[in-house]
Design goal:
The complex is a heterodimer of chains A (114) and B (131).
Chain A lengths: L1 E7 L2 E10 L3 H15 L4 E12 L1 H16 L3 E5 L3 H9 L8 E2 L2 H9 L2
Parallel strand pairs in A: 2-3, 3-4, 4-5
Antiparallel strand pairs in A: 1-2
Chain B lengths: L3 H12 L5 H22 L9 E7 L2 E8 L25 H8 L2 E7 L2 E9 L10
Helix pairs in contact in B: 1-2, 2-3
The chains are: A alpha/beta (114), B alpha+beta (131).
Chain lengths: 114, 131
């Protein structure tokens, strides 16, 4: 897994690529979010458009990241979820936890109205 | 963890058979879950202990069996259809995902080898025909 970070309209966009499957991925994602919290950046959008697949350990990594942001009164949302990853979120009912958007424009706008 | 290899094999194999992309993704995700369990819980990430994968296929059916050398778990006492009670739980979804995605899922233990067998059957025609 790789993470590329950029900012748009006060939202940090994390462009994740590769596979989210545990091992070093967990530490990378966790460290990235903790750094954002330290920098007082509490609005995070995770772009999964270039993620090939996520396994159940990878789901745990995303849940842990979500919890980190929530604990700090922040938010973590998802965008560009592929059909394959969409399916795994559906069967595990994780869409009742995560807000997910088709486009980055929609996702960024959702932060602004809160 | 080289979990991309079984994923690539299933995707390549399935593209030659009568499976939809969604069905292939479901089987592939299940195989990745099975391999993750075998590596983490079965062989405790010991590189010298092998995880073996056997694939048997027909045009509309793929059967995958994953073997590890761990003790396995008490599969007879687990309700595979039970999703995690707490959605915020970070682990414990692997078997539920395999059960949900596959048409058959079974576990067995024999002579120090633990095996998980999963079967996926093609339901939607991909338009491919016998050549």
């Amino acid at each position: 897994m790789k993470i590329k970070e950029r900012e748009r309209d006060g939202v940090v966009v994390l462009e994740v690529s590769g596979k989210i499957m545990g091992g070093p991925d967990s530490e990378l994602f966790s460290t990235t979010l903790k750094s954002l919290v330290h920098e007082k950046k509490f609005r995070v959008l995770v772009d999964l458009g270039n993620v090939t697949w996520v396994n159940s350990t990878g789901l745990g990594i995303l849940i842990s990241g979500y919890s980190t942001m929530k604990r700090n009164n922040g938010e973590m949302k998802l965008v560009n979820v592929s059909d394959r990853i969409d399916s795994i979120f559906m069967v595990t009912k994780l869409y009742s936890v995560f807000d997910s958007f088709k486009t980055e424009d929609e996702a960024i706008a959702s932060f602004a109205v809160e | 963890m080289m979990l991309g290899i079984p994923d690539a094999v299933i995707q390549e194999l399935g593209s030659e058979l009568s499976f939809s992309q969604a069905e292939l993704d479901e089987l592939s995700t299940s195989v990745i879950e099975g391999c993750t369990n075998a590596l983490e819980h079965g062989n405790h990430m010991k590189s010298e202990t092998p995880v073996r994968i056997a694939i048997d296929f027909e045009r509309t059916r793929i059967e995958v069996t994953i073997y590890d050398e761990g003790p396995g778990f008490d599969f007879e006492s687990i309700d595979f259809s039970q999703e995690p009670a707490d959605l915020m739980q970070e682990r414990g979804r692997g078997i539920y995902i395999m059960f949900t995605y596959c048409d058959e899922l079974s576990f067995s233990r024999n002579n120090g080898t633990f095996a998980v067998k999963m079967v996926k059957t093609a339901k939607e025609s991909s338009g491919k025909s016998e050549s």
